[in-house]
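Researcher: Re-running this chain for the archive, since the previous output was lost when a drive failed. Same request as before.
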Amino acid sequence: MDRREFIAAGVTLAGAPLAAPSIARAQTSFNRKMTNAYGPGSPFYVEGPGSPTDFCKKVAAMSDGRITIQHFAAGELIPALEGFDAVRSGAVEMNAANANAWASLPADLQAIVQTAAMACNLESHTWCEANNASALKDMIENDGVIADVLPEDVVMELKSVTDSVLSEFATQDPAARKVHDAFMAFKAEHSEWAAISEKPYQSLPV
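Model: Regenerated structure tokens:
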């Protein structure tokens, strides 16, 4: 063995112990349970493109199985609308924000979960819009449904009541206040843009 081969062999051997912990960390797997407020098989809310079950499949595929999320519809693990309490007690890891479960994930898996969530958000919205349009057409043409909008005064009253309920809820929890104020500020700013961009086009006759 000449000097060059000896150095190459030494570098290879020296690097082996350093690589082992990195490989071990990469293979660490995580199992999570996620609950849902809607019943089994519910379109959009449980099943379908971009749905929670689709999200679980995307995360598993993108992470090559390193993180597995088991989805439970309402009644399968806990009753509907008890997800927040289940996360707080540690019975499940996903429904509301769970800082401890999130912090336990390495950065690459956090990025995978975030990316899958963003993809599902976009996919579920477009899927829902497309299906709502075809469903409405089917009901009008085949079921004799008459589709119309609510009177403006009724809509305004509903908006007023909704704003009041959301504002009251926001006063009860700092996190809810943060989300509420951020959303309302964005909505106000975006509404100005939408009023001169999307709304005029969408108001045109078909």
